[in-house]
Design a protein that fits this description.
This protein is an all-alpha fold. The chain is elongated, with a radius of gyration of 32 Å. It contains 5 helices and no strands.
Length: 136
Protein backbone atom coordinates (compact mmCIF):
# COMPACT_ATOMS: atom_id res chain seq x y z
CA UNK A 1 0.00 0.00 0.00
CA UNK A 2 1.52 3.37 -0.99
CA UNK A 3 2.32 5.84 1.75
CA UNK A 4 0.21 8.67 0.24
CA UNK A 5 -2.92 6.52 0.22
CA UNK A 6 -2.56 5.59 3.90
CA UNK A 7 -2.55 9.18 5.23
CA UNK A 8 -5.21 11.83 5.38
CA UNK A 9 -2.82 14.68 4.46
CA UNK A 10 -2.16 16.02 7.98
CA UNK A 11 -0.09 18.88 6.52
CA UNK A 12 -3.15 20.23 4.73
CA UNK A 13 -5.12 19.93 7.96
CA UNK A 14 -2.41 21.92 9.71
CA UNK A 15 -2.51 24.62 7.03
CA UNK A 16 -6.31 24.77 7.27
CA UNK A 17 -6.09 25.12 11.07
CA UNK A 18 -3.54 27.92 10.70
CA UNK A 19 -5.83 29.66 8.20
CA UNK A 20 -8.80 29.35 10.57
CA UNK A 21 -6.78 30.81 13.46
CA UNK A 22 -5.56 33.64 11.24
CA UNK A 23 -9.13 34.39 10.08
CA UNK A 24 -10.34 34.35 13.69
CA UNK A 25 -7.61 36.79 14.79
CA UNK A 26 -8.38 39.09 11.83
CA UNK A 27 -12.09 38.99 12.69
CA UNK A 28 -11.39 39.96 16.32
CA UNK A 29 -9.08 42.73 15.16
CA UNK A 30 -11.76 44.08 12.79
CA UNK A 31 -14.37 43.82 15.56
CA UNK A 32 -12.12 45.81 17.89
CA UNK A 33 -11.40 48.47 15.24
CA UNK A 34 -15.07 48.84 14.29
CA UNK A 35 -16.32 49.04 17.87
CA UNK A 36 -13.56 51.52 18.74
CA UNK A 37 -14.60 53.66 15.78
CA UNK A 38 -18.28 53.43 16.74
CA UNK A 39 -17.65 54.71 20.26
CA UNK A 40 -15.13 57.31 19.05
CA UNK A 41 -17.55 58.82 16.53
CA UNK A 42 -18.95 62.14 17.62
CA UNK A 43 -21.40 62.23 14.72
CA UNK A 44 -23.36 59.21 16.01
CA UNK A 45 -26.02 59.53 18.68
CA UNK A 46 -26.25 57.14 21.58
CA UNK A 47 -28.95 55.18 19.81
CA UNK A 48 -26.84 55.01 16.66
CA UNK A 49 -23.89 53.67 18.63
CA UNK A 50 -26.12 51.11 20.34
CA UNK A 51 -27.63 50.01 17.02
CA UNK A 52 -24.24 49.57 15.36
CA UNK A 53 -22.93 47.68 18.39
CA UNK A 54 -25.88 45.28 18.42
CA UNK A 55 -25.66 44.85 14.64
CA UNK A 56 -21.92 44.11 14.75
CA UNK A 57 -22.17 41.75 17.74
CA UNK A 58 -25.21 39.73 16.69
CA UNK A 59 -24.51 39.55 12.94
CA UNK A 60 -20.72 39.77 13.09
CA UNK A 61 -19.60 39.15 9.53
CA UNK A 62 -22.41 41.08 7.88
CA UNK A 63 -22.30 43.82 10.54
CA UNK A 64 -18.58 44.46 10.11
CA UNK A 65 -18.79 44.42 6.31
CA UNK A 66 -21.78 46.80 6.28
CA UNK A 67 -20.04 49.13 8.74
CA UNK A 68 -16.88 49.17 6.64
CA UNK A 69 -18.90 49.92 3.50
CA UNK A 70 -21.15 52.54 5.09
CA UNK A 71 -18.71 54.35 7.37
CA UNK A 72 -15.30 53.07 6.28
CA UNK A 73 -14.17 56.13 4.32
CA UNK A 74 -14.58 58.40 7.35
CA UNK A 75 -12.83 55.99 9.77
CA UNK A 76 -9.41 57.25 8.69
CA UNK A 77 -10.45 60.87 9.16
CA UNK A 78 -11.62 60.21 12.73
CA UNK A 79 -8.46 58.27 13.58
CA UNK A 80 -6.24 61.01 12.10
CA UNK A 81 -8.15 63.71 14.00
CA UNK A 82 -7.76 61.85 17.29
CA UNK A 83 -4.05 61.24 16.66
CA UNK A 84 -3.61 64.95 15.94
CA UNK A 85 -5.43 65.88 19.17
CA UNK A 86 -3.31 63.46 21.19
CA UNK A 87 -0.13 64.80 19.60
CA UNK A 88 -1.12 68.39 20.37
CA UNK A 89 -1.99 67.49 23.97
CA UNK A 90 1.39 65.77 24.37
CA UNK A 91 3.26 68.73 22.89
CA UNK A 92 1.35 71.16 25.16
CA UNK A 93 2.21 69.03 28.20
CA UNK A 94 5.90 68.93 27.24
CA UNK A 95 5.98 72.70 26.74
CA UNK A 96 4.31 73.26 30.12
CA UNK A 97 6.60 70.80 31.90
CA UNK A 98 9.73 72.21 30.28
CA UNK A 99 8.73 75.81 30.90
CA UNK A 100 7.76 75.35 34.54
CA UNK A 101 11.32 74.85 35.80
CA UNK A 102 13.90 77.44 34.85
CA UNK A 103 17.26 76.14 33.78
CA UNK A 104 20.37 76.82 35.78
CA UNK A 105 21.45 79.34 33.13
CA UNK A 106 18.17 81.22 33.61
CA UNK A 107 18.61 81.21 37.36
CA UNK A 108 22.21 82.44 37.09
CA UNK A 109 21.15 85.22 34.71
CA UNK A 110 18.43 86.26 37.14
CA UNK A 111 20.92 86.27 40.03
CA UNK A 112 23.39 88.35 38.00
CA UNK A 113 20.63 90.83 37.23
CA UNK A 114 19.69 91.08 40.92
CA UNK A 115 23.35 91.65 41.87
CA UNK A 116 23.77 94.25 39.14
CA UNK A 117 20.70 96.17 40.35
CA UNK A 118 21.99 96.03 43.92
CA UNK A 119 19.19 93.87 45.30
CA UNK A 120 21.64 91.23 46.56
CA UNK A 121 25.26 91.57 47.59
CA UNK A 122 28.22 89.86 45.91
CA UNK A 123 28.44 87.36 48.80
CA UNK A 124 24.75 86.48 48.48
CA UNK A 125 25.25 86.12 44.74
CA UNK A 126 28.12 83.67 45.25
CA UNK A 127 26.12 81.63 47.79
CA UNK A 128 23.09 81.39 45.50
CA UNK A 129 25.31 80.64 42.50
CA UNK A 130 26.93 77.76 44.42
CA UNK A 131 23.46 76.47 45.43
CA UNK A 132 22.14 76.63 41.85
CA UNK A 133 25.18 74.87 40.40
CA UNK A 134 25.10 72.20 43.10
CA UNK A 135 21.41 71.45 42.51
CA UNK A 136 21.96 70.67 38.80
Amino acid sequence: MPLAASTSYPVLDAFWTIFEIFAFVIWFWLLFVVLTDVFRSSDLSGWGKAAWTIFVLFLPLIGILVYLIARGPSMHERAARQASQQDEAFRRYVREAAGSQPTSADQLAQLADLRQRGVISADEFEQEKTRVLASR
